[in-house]
Structures are given as C-alpha cells and as structure tokens.
Design brief:
About 75% of the residues lie in helices and about 0% in strands. It is built from two helices and no strands.
Length: about 100
C-alpha cells in the first residue's frame, strides 16, 4: 500500500478507526441475523396456506400480505450480508495498515 508519509495517520487514529469498524461489523451482523430470522419466519407463515392444508381456502384473500414480505426479505438479507462483508474488509484493511506503519 502506498502511503503519503507527511499525511500518514497516527496509531491512535488507526486504533479509533478499527474500533469504529468493529462496531459497524457488530451492527451489520445483528441486522443480517435479523433479516435471516425474518425470512425464515415468512417462509414458515406461508406453509399453512399451501394446498392440502385447512387454511388454503383463505390463500386468495391474504396471499399478497404474506407473499410480498417473503419476496422482499431476501433483498434485505442480501444487502445486510454485503454490508457486513464490507465492514469486515474495512477492518482487515485497517489492520493491515496499522501493521505496515
């Protein structure tokens, strides 16, 4: 990594940035796990309305209320997982920067 020696961050600044990045990792990890739980919950809620179940008769009236969140949840899950991965890569690059100094 090429660093401008005159404007190089101090070790304290790098430690503070690593601490902030670790907080970001924790936040995105929690959001990812919440998105996974929401998606699984949506899938479980759809199951009773499948053909052959006694609640299938009500499927036509509430299908969009249940089916739409199930389709949107993977988008939120993907966004949270990518953000979690990005936060982890930030920490890795900051740790590499601190070891190079």
């Amino acid at each position: 990594m090429v660093l401008d020696i005159e404007n190089a961050p101090s070790q304290d600044e790098i430690r503070e940035a690593i601490g902030d990045a670790i907080e970001s990792i924790d936040r995105w990890r929690f959001r990812t796990f919440c998105a996974v739980a929401f998606w699984v919950f949506c899938c479980v809620v759809i199951y009773p309305f499948m053909a052959g179940h006694s609640l299938h008769a009500y499927w036509q009236s509430i299908k969009f209320l249940i089916f739409l969140p199930t389709l949107i949840a993977p988008v939120a899950l993907t966004f949270c997982a990518i953000s979690w991965w990005g936060a982890r890569s930030d920490v890795r690059s900051l740790r590499k920067l601190s070891s190079d100094l």
